[in-house]
Amino acid sequence: MTDGRIVITGMGAVTPIGIGVSSYWKNLIAGTNGISLIERFDSSGLPVKVAGEIKDFVASDFLSKKVARTMDLFMQYAFAAAQEALEAARLKEKIEPERVGIVVGTALGGVTTAAKTQERITEKQSYRVSPYTVPKMLGNIAASQIAIHHDIKGPNLTVNTACSSGADAIGMAQMLLQAGQADAVIAVGAESILTELMAAGLVSARALSTEENPKQASRPFDAKRNGFVMGEGAGALVLEKMDGAVKRNTPIEAELLGYASNTDAYHVTSPEPEGNGQIRCMEAAMAQAGLEVGQIDYMNAHGTATPLGDQIETSSIKKVFGKEAYDIPVSSTKGATGHLMGAGGVTELIACIKAIQDGVMPPTLNYEEIDASCDLDYIPGIARDKEVKIAMSNAFGFGGQNTSLIVGEYEPNVSWIGKKERLRNDFHV
Q: Which of 264-278, 295-309, 414-428 has the lowest mean pLDDT?
């Protein structure tokens, strides 16, 4: 029975360490650090001096200049990532536009446009603004622009669950497919928040790193971590029912095995101290996938490099996996890219898929000094070769949002759920 299986047939990425999945992955496993001194705005009056900026993105490589001017930067990133994923999936072959959906995840949408427009109004004392000002601020217009330019006429949704937004876009895509609302869905996570407004707000919340050396600023799980580094970018995945992808004879990248989302119901910025929401979320994703402890080969952690967040996530992983937690290689790719906010849930799942395909796990940059409360195998500094069959990715956000995703190597004739009994027996031998 294959009707319920969901597969991934296309991927796209725009990140501070590379544009395009190939470039992103190559630089990720090479240990490239994409964090640099802030150039996008004047940070002289702020204690934060670094960010994961995308330096070499040219909108006209993907869009006409006229259309690009109607989009906020996060929309341009979303469009570019979506275009790469759609081309890889060859969706226009034998799928009606009405049966293709879009889900975009973004935490803050066009906040950059909003901040810059208000700044101009205040400085010039003039209310003459572009007619595209409001569309550039609206989070859902990213999905609309993708639909318009690719003639996609199915469900069109935008998800806002803070830093879990991109991961939840993937989960929503899964639900649309399982509900029969679409035969293929492109899930996109996109973000660009590099403004004085966001930097000041996050500084006030004591969330950002104040390290001035860009290459040392993002330190997930390290004893000297002191906050996350803002990043920007986009990721995109095309998800389909397995039967449809097989009939189209399109290459299949991986299989989506599990998705879970919940909330701490505790605090608007701080995670619940015991990690109960995170624990329930990981356990629910494992249950949906039909997996048990010992079957996760690699984990891409949320790992933002905040003192409390990394400690709680580590504790949660240990409570879910018990003594086996120490045998699971874990990394946070935010040491390389910074925190991509709503985009991270997608780009980090792409890293899991590539780890499965290539048998290489990306490193955690700047993990140098052990914190007694963060004592798992974080793949410090250098990528590691290992066969990876199944990988988990976590995305946690403000408001107590928790999301966990699980992907597995695609095997056409036997699902991972079908292998559950054999895998469990193998594990206990």
A: 414-428
Catalytic residue among 150, 339, 352, 374: 339
CB 29 within 8 A of CB 360: yes
267 is catalytic: no
Residue 424 Cα distances to 296, 411, 418, angstroms: 12, 18, 11
Measured N-to-C along each axis, helices 344-358 and 21-30 cross at an angle, to the nearest 10 degrees, of 80
pLDDT of residue 112: 97
In this model, does residue 426 exceed pLDDT 60?
A: no
Mark whether 163 is an active-site residue: yes
Q: Give 95's Cβ-side CA count (13 Å radius).
A: 32
Please confirm, yes or no, whether 352 is among the known catalytic residues.
Answer: no
Give me the catalytic one of 150, 281, 302, 352: 302
Per residue in 15-33, is it b (16+ CB within 10 Å) or e — as a string? bbbbbbbebbbebbbeebb
3-state SS class at 144: helix
What stretch(es) of the chain map to CATH 3.40.47.10?
A: 6-248, 259-415
Residue 231 has pLDDT above 80, yes or no: yes
Compute the average pLDDT of residues 21-26: 98
CATH topology classification for 259-415: Peroxisomal Thiolase; Chain A, domain 1 (3.40.47)
Q: Considering the domain 6-248 in this protein, what is its CATH number?
A: 3.40.47.10
Is the separation of the CB atoms in 182 and 103 below 8 Å? no
β-pairing, 254-263 vs 233-241, is unpaired
Calpha distance 400→393 (Å, rounded): 17
Catalytic residue among 163, 281, 352, 374: 163
**R_g over Cα of the chain:** 20
Name the token pair of 166.
Answer: 């991109």
Q: How far is CA 89 from CA 20, 23, 54, 290, 427, in A?
A: 14, 18, 25, 27, 35
Q: What sign has the CA pseudo-torsion 221, 227, 233, 239? A: positive
Give the phi and the psi of residue 267 in degrees, each rounded to 5: -155, 155
